């Protein structure tokens, strides 16, 4: 039984759709307000649960073929926010939740979304973040000699760099690089640059466009810098080439570039790395349910990560190019609709993926 564990923060999001961005010290009436569970890893697991086969849950044995778990800090187990999070992720195990007894509110964010597609986020977190000691205490009884027979995949949001680095280093020193405990890390925010330590040890590394652009802006500055010999305008592909020497020999490196699509590099202990790239997905003419323009970019990166994790765990015969294309289309569909509902069903009806997903479900 494969076990996918996502480690990161959960938020209760309040999304305000407004006719324009509010001016300071003024009043503005919102067009709509939504409250929903947010957070990178929660979004990823929500989409992952849609991609798994319908028979993933065995009603006779009450077990999952692929188990999904979330390790996240939540308020008191009896608080309304905790109950809302659990209800929003019915196919995700709560066994790794880290409760803060007595606290009634989860971390919160207010997202102001005007028609031009921009997002302004104000967040507040009253809960103490996860510590390395809490992570270790949860993982030790989970990964035993018996469970090492199954694959455990641990994905880190990259929220608190010092804690993530400690967790990744401990996983490698304890379980090694035997591919039974796979590690993926998201490097999204450039100010968390010390996460490069975790990237050196990870099996899969997700780089954001912001991270890559910041790297280019700083890596080639100063009198001792190395001259840059890539494209005049750096892109995802040229960035990944700079990271090959700084990651482990079998790493799968991915950089997303918004409308520009994504690029990937698959490394091997011997032989040259394989490079792939894809352009941003756009709806087809025979899919009128999708808006031509992007309507909701919240969680697009989380959706992309869900696509890669699914492909790595469930589609082992797919090459790097197929995994990249699958995640790219999945994230593209999310951008052209509101929320995450129905993404798995849409991929199973996709002209490109319908047959491939049907074949894998039968095997």
Would you state the CATH class? Alpha Beta
Proportion in β-strands = 15-25%
Mean pLDDT: 90
Report how far the terminal alpha carbons are from each other.
16 Å
Rounded Rg = 20 Å
What is the number of domains?
Answer: 1
Structural class: alpha/beta
The CATH topology annotation reads as UDP-N-acetylmuramoyl-L-alanine:D-glutamate ligase
Largest sheet features: 8 strands, mixed
Q: Give me the count of strands.
A: 16
Q: Low-confidence stretches at least 5 residues in length (pLDDT < 50)?
A: none
Helix content: 25-40%
As laid out across the biggest beta sheet, the strand order is: 6-1-11-12-13-14-15-16
User: Any idea what the CATH architecture is?
Assistant: 3-Layer(aba) Sandwich
Shape: globular
- CATH homologous superfamily identity: Ribokinase
Count of discrete alpha- or pi-helical segments spanning 4 or more residues: 11
Order of helices and strands: EEEHEEEEHEEEHEHEHEHHEEEHHHH
Written overview of the protein:
- InterPro entries: Carboh/pur_kinase_PfkB_CS, Ketohexokinase-related, PfkB_dom, Ribokinase-like.
- Residues 1-339 form the Carbohydrate kinase PfkB domain.
- Pfam families: PfkB (PF00294).
- This is Carbohydrate kinase PfkB domain-containing protein.
- This protein has 363 residues and is α/β, with parallel strands linked by helices.
- The protein has a single domain (3-18, 32-222, 230-362), classed as Ribokinase (UDP-N-acetylmuramoyl-L-alanine:D-glutamate ligase, 3-Layer(aba) Sandwich).
- The chain has 11 helices and 16 strands.
- Helix 1 crosses helix 8 (300-314) and helix 8 packs antiparallel against helix 9 (320-335).
- The longest helix is centred in the C-terminal third of the chain and has 16 residues, at 320-335.
- The chain starts with a strand and ends with a helix.
- The mean pLDDT is 90.
